[in-house]
Sequence to fold (732 residues):
Amino acid sequence: MFENLQEKLSQAFKLLKGKGKISESNVREALKQVKISLLSADVNYKVVKELMERVTSKALGEKVIKSITPDQQFIKIVNDELVELLGGKESNLDLKSRPSVILMVGLQGSGKTTTAAKIALWLRRKKGRNTLLVADDVHRPAAIEQLETLGRSIDIPVFAGYRKDPYKIAKEGLNFAIAKGNDTIILDTAGRLQIDEDMMEEVEEISRITKPDEVLMVLDSMAGQDVVNAAAEFDRRLGITGFVVTKLDGDSRGGVALSTKYVTGKAIKFVGTGEKLEQIDVFYPDRMASRILGMGDVVSLVERVQENFDNEKMKEMEKRLRKAQFTFDDFREQLRQVKKMGSLSSMLEMMPGAAKLKDVKVDEDQLTHVEAIINSMTKKERMNSGMINFSRKKRIAAGSGRPLSEINKLMKSYDEMKKMMKKFGKLEKKGKLGKFPFRF
Amino acid sequence: MGIFNLFKKGLKKTKEGFFGRAISILKGGITPEKLEEIQELLLLSDVGPETSDYIIENFRSSRDDPVETLRNTLQELLGKDERLEFSSVPPTVYTLVGVNGSGKTTTAGKLAWRFKNEGKRVSIAAADTFRAAAIEQLKEWGNRVNAPVIAHKMGADAGAVAYDALNHAISNKIDVVIVDTAGRLHTKSNLMRELEKVHKVIKKLDENQPTEVLLVLDATIGQNAIQQARVFDKSVGITGIVLTKLDGTSKGGMIFSIKKELSIPVKLIGIGENMQDLKDFNASDFVDAVLE
Fold:
């Protein structure tokens, strides 16, 4: 399983402490860890190699600032570099012509059709635009019906015309938009491989006919090493103006964003964050950088937690936590909420520094066991853990089918949790913590 | 940017491919630099840092012919070829699962064609009731290959579709039922639970079914494939992988890690958009293609 980069780096830098400067020898191990992390994130190998050179020259000779550890400082150097590489000026859509044309292109299954509908909706909501969607994928069965269904669900018109000739659809779509007064046209095209000559010529011809303001290539965030080659070829033939990275609601680290930006120099303009049509967002280089680096995408984590937690229940629990009235009933409720969020390991990977939580074994069965143990307590015991003596523990062990040692361990971590809650509560009263850290 | 030319060159080079390069790199003995070059080739094929380290380590310690050693190491990781299983009592049920855009519906159509072509009675269950026009897409495949498509309306209960398809198969003496499910990211626990429900509905009708649960994996994706396989396997028990889109320039090297870590074999590969472009997986051909 992928270990958190920060954890590995702090090991690599143990030797560095007190030496004052980052030097070539002590930076080597750290660089290796960063390299592995970037490769696990599917950043293209050649890009990783060039990146490492840039980072090395920046890191060497940097004075270690006393207030932070060298590993933190090193990560900051790498992270800053990534943010800089991922960022760019032209992240806005440049839609000057009337009507403006956006051409959607990409490999099969990257999410072009869904993204076309998402951008149409986004343009209406954020820019007040009146878009016509043009269904120009004549190859995949029912691709046109798919766009029509999506368009209907968000009340955006879809033009399909004569369903066999992609050039005719493109031309007529343009005329249709002009006649109907649409200020924007989004053309959805078929997925194609960059080595499929006939298909590449088809999309070149569509581009010549429609003279797009924007050519957006849709990239699956799960993409592997080779997709940067596809992006480079699409760019060479069509002049990509930007990328959309989709399916970021999964747990892929999205290295393709870095590779394609690095190789083509073209900005990432949008990210897709879910199956609902409003789930599209403008691109934040800093979020993406920490995700690729394996530093945890805290923002996404918080979003996922918010999406899955029952807010009312959580508010109630938060109140109780503040007062340190945390009972086993609350504990169990929390467990159930956590289970709802999906695989624990994927959650942990999103958390910065999670690798330090060594005692927290990522064993999903454990959650079930803990719940079984709590279920075997009486209501009184759950309210008042202090009363659980040895004979009660034995009964709980028998009832839940778990060994006594596990009951003890649970009691211990429960007590620790309670203590922690108290500390948080106190800190907050003194105003040291603005907000409860997470809505757990 | 200098690297751009490298990629352009890379594009032309794909035909020469990897084993030719591996052979030329390995000519005249192994040096640390050469090992690094081999590792680079493995990494660019999506083999991933961990498994490529493992391969290189294995390789370093061997005294045999380097090219053969490399080939054998890769081959051993993949193990023996495994074919699709058939149920001794018909129907044989194949459930297709996977993330969005991996190629499930196209695979369902191609599988249906394949068995029709073998003279079997085939039906397809449209258990993707979520994605817009998924049912229409499957119906078009049904028309092409002349197989009945069992479908409800969009938004209907996917389990109910599977239930109907199985009953239809039993009363119509269908040999093979292909269940196409909705694409779902493995991180969406509610959608994973829905899939488990579809699976349970099938199991309830016949505990020996589905005959196979096939994970459809896109060869262009990277290391996340391993996590996908892990989570889908835990949820519904994957018996084999269909590796799609191998007609591009991606190598699909993540299947080495999946086999090594989860012991899930690849059974089929997709190599094009035509009906006949679904083939049995052959490990030795695959290794050659990775190393070609």
